[in-house]
């Protein structure tokens, strides 16, 4: 089978296009013929050498969609359309950057869909994270409230905007690039805020003088303290992204979290396997109905994986980058 193998830590050039044996099925694992894989920034960091548990060479890819080719689970017969996310895919064992992936049965999410593979591949990790983040914030369909999304043109940011728009929630989103404003508007964002590196406070207050009720912070560690002061007093900030790294230096909760304001987080591992199946099917149904608008930035072939990683690493994407084997 064809696969993109990360042969060691480094730049995009360490991803090598190789022919590998199709994995042999073993108890508790099933073989999936991969028809699409969404790219994620966590794979970029793994490739750079920032995932200490990863041993190279490794086929990266924390998510994929495809068809069960050989099953060891009677509830997942051959021919079943499935998605899989997280659970150490592409880290402890080979992931979605290949024509076939041997995956634990516990990770497989059977779904029913008529969506083309590129659209389906853009949904699992992105929309499960967006949905879980909105749930953690307390954003509900038909509810009231104002949502600010920081890192709005990330794939999760655009998915969250799409879901929130479907809920009828008023949204604002930040971007650092003028040329990405139209993409956010198309995703359903009501107010696009250009983040020039200067204080964002005045821009947010010009839209919402009292501040948003919710902030979904996908930039992460470099902006979360500021987000806690942007949200209205008593509002909620959810950190679900790590575009700026993993740790908040010198974080002092009592000094940095305004009284009554809430800080929470969401990790997509919470929706892996059976825990995410119903949620993902609901997302798929909403996409098929035209309620959610998936935002695919570009589709690459597996043999163009180096170019795909460069595209992602240079922050050129507005939405999801997808690879089709």
What level of helicity do the residues show? 25-40%
Question: What is the end-to-end distance?
Answer: 10 Å
Rounded Rg:
20 Å
Helix and strand run: EEEHEEEEEHHEHEHEHEHEHEHEHE
What is the count of DSSP helices, taking H or I runs of 4+ residues?
Answer: 10
**Unreliable segments of 5+ consecutive residues:** none
Report the sheet with the most strands, covering strand number, pairing sense and barrel closure.
7 strands, mixed
Shape: globular
What attributes characterize this protein structure?
globular, seven-stranded mixed β-sheet, alpha/beta, six-stranded parallel β-sheet
Please, could you describe this protein's structure?
There is one protein chain. This protein is an alpha/beta fold and 325 residues long. It contains ten helices and 16 strands. Strands 3, 5, 6, 7, 8, 15 and 16 form a seven-stranded mixed beta sheet that branches. Strands 11-10-9-12-13-14 form a six-stranded parallel beta sheet, with helices on both faces. A three-stranded antiparallel beta sheet has the order 2-1-4, with no helix packed on it. Helix 3 crosses helix 4 (155-167) and helix 3 packs across helix 9 (274-288). It is globular, with a radius of gyration of 20 Å.
């Amino acid at each position: 089978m064809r696969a993109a193998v990360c042969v060691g830590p480094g730049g995009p050039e360490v991803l090598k296009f190789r022919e590998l044996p199709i994995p042999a099925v073993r108890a508790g694992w099933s073989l999936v013929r991969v028809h699409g894989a969404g790219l994620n920034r966590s794979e970029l960091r793994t490739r750079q050498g920032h995932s200490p548990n990863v041993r190279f060479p490794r086929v990266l890819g924390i998510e994929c969609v495809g068809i069960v080719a050989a099953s060891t689970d009677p509830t997942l017969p051959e021919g079943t359309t499935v998605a899989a996310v997280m659970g150490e895919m592409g880290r402890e064992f080979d992931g979605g950057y290949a024509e076939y992936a041997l995956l634990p049965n516990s990770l497989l999410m059977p779904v029913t869909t008529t969506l083309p593979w590129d659209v389906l591949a853009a949904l699992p990790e992105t929309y499960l994270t967006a949905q879980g983040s909105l749930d953690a914030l307390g954003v509900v369909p038909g509810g009231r409230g104002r949502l600010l999304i920081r890192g709005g043109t990330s794939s999760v940011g655009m998915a969250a905007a799409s879901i929130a728009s479907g809920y009828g929630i008023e949204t604002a989103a930040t971007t650092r690039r003028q040329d990405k404003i139209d993409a956010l508007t198309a995703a359903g964002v009501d107010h696009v805020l250009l983040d020039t590196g200067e204080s964002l406070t005045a821009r947010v207050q010009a839209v919402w003088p009292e501040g948003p009720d919710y902030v979904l912070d996908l930039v992460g560690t470099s902006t979360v303290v500021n987000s806690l002061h942007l949200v209205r007093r008593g509002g909620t900030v959810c950190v679900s992204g790590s575009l700026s790294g993993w740790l908040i230096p010198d974080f002092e909760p009592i000094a940095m979290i305004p009284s009554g304001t809430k800080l929470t987080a969401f990790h997509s591992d919470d929706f892996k396997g059976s825990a995410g199946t119903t949620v993902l099917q609901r997302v798929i149904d909403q996409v098929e109905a035209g309620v959610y608008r998936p935002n695919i930035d570009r589709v690459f072939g597996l043999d163009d994986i180096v170019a795909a990683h460069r595209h992602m690493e240079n922050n050129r994407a507005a939405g999801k980058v997808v690879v089709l084997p």
